[in-house]
């Protein structure tokens, strides 16, 4: 079987990680969550009191930081300098500030270098914002997932409530809009659909339907 690279990009909360995990499992590929890498750096910077606007300080921090994405039977685990931070990087505080960290060109350059090393062997499903457009421009399959802000906020709202977290739908919509705006308008490799990406609007589709659509694109390439 040929091992390929599958890039899945799209705006915040469009369901990228959920379907990427399903696709990776079906193909026994490695799932690489690039957002988790930016989140881990953001978490560490907040903990160490480093201002998120200061590119050089963030770079000094990133250079001595090891971020490991591991797959376990319980799902993906994120290790920051050997310590598990899987849940710590999903807090509202990190979510609402990660796009500031991800704007810095030097930070992105280093993250992209690490991501390309992970993708070099193929057999990967990588999700993020710039994977098809920049990180793996020669990915054999490129998917761009979109959904309305209303739909994305409602999904997140439902998830939060199921987890027993307090959740405010209007606030979620505002946060998603704001994060999309920063990610789309930044100067260095902004969120953009690659010319050769297949766009899928997931607004009225189930997770299973989205995964099936992607698998069809994948099987055409294999
Ligand atoms: O995918 P997730 O929502 O966890 O990503 C968190 C943030 O990390 C994004 O909003 C974006 O600012 C940044 N990111 C990025 N490039 C990627 C992946 C994530 O800029 N490839």
TrEMBL record:
Domain Cytidylate kinase: 6-219
Superkingdom per UniProt: Bacteria
InterPro entries according to UniProt: Cytidylate_kin, Cytidylate_kinase_dom, P-loop_NTPase
UniProt keyword 4Fe-4S present: no
EC number: 2.7.4.25
Keyword annotations of the record: ATP-binding, Cytoplasm, Kinase, Nucleotide-binding, Transferase
Single annotated GO MF: kinase activity
SUPFAM superfamilies attached to this UniProt entry: P-loop containing nucleoside triphosphate hydrolases
Subcellular location field: Cytoplasm
Binding residues for ATP: 10-18
Catalytic activity: CMP + ATP = CDP + ADP; dCMP + ATP = dCDP + ADP
Any matching Pfam family: Cytidylate_kin
Family affiliation: Belongs to the cytidylate kinase family. Type 1 subfamily.
PANTHER family membership: CYTIDYLATE KINASE, CYTIDYLATE KINASE/PANTOATE-BETA-ALANINE LIGASE
Name of the featured protein: Cytidylate kinase
Gene (name only): cmk
